[in-house]
Specification:
single chain, 117 residues, mainly alpha, Arc Repressor Mutant, subunit A, three-stranded antiparallel beta sheet, 3 strands, 69% helix
Length: 117
C-alpha cells in the first residue's frame, strides 16, 4: 500500500472512531454515565443504577455502547464487573476538534482577506 493510501486509510479509520464516540456521547443518559464514571472510582451496574429511574438492563445497554466506543472499560472484581472511564478516546477527539477548528480558522481568515480586498 502506498503512503498516500495508508494515510487515507488511517484518516478513514479515525473518522469512524470519532463517529462512534460522538454517537455514544450524543445520548443524555450515556453522557451522564460518562460524567459519573469520570469523577470517581470504577462502579458496578448496581451503583450506576442507584438514584436513577433506569433499570439495570437499560444501564447495561448504555454501558455496552460506551464500551464499543472505547469510552468505558469493564474490569472484573470478584463476581461483579466494575466500569471505569477511559479518557484516551476523549483526548484523541479533542485533538481532532482542535484540528478542525484550526482549519475553519484558516478558511475564515482567507474569506475575510478576500472580502476586504
Amino acid at each position: 500500500m502506498s503512503r498516500r493510501n495508508d494515510s487515507r486509510a488511517r484518516l478513514a479509520s479515525g473518522r469512524r472512531a470519532h463517529a462512534l464516540i460522538f454517537a455514544a456521547l450524543g445520548d443524555a443518559t450515556r453522557l451522564a454515565i460518562v460524567a459519573k464514571l469520570s469523577t470517581g472510582p470504577p462502579r458496578s451496574i448496581s451503583q450506576l443504577t442507584a438514584g436513577s429511574r433506569l433499570t439495570r438492563q437499560a444501564i447495561t445497554k448504555h454501558l455496552r455502547v460506551l464500551e464499543s466506543s472505547g469510552l468505558v472499560r469493564s474490569v472484573r472484581s470478584g463476581r461483579e464487573s466494575l466500569f471505569e472511564f477511559h479518557p484516551e478516546p476523549v483526548e484523541d477527539l479533542k485533538k481532532y476538534l482542535d484540528f478542525v477548528s484550526a482549519q475553519w480558522g484558516h478558511a475564515l481568515a482567507r474569506l475575510k482577506s478576500f472580502v476586504e480586498r
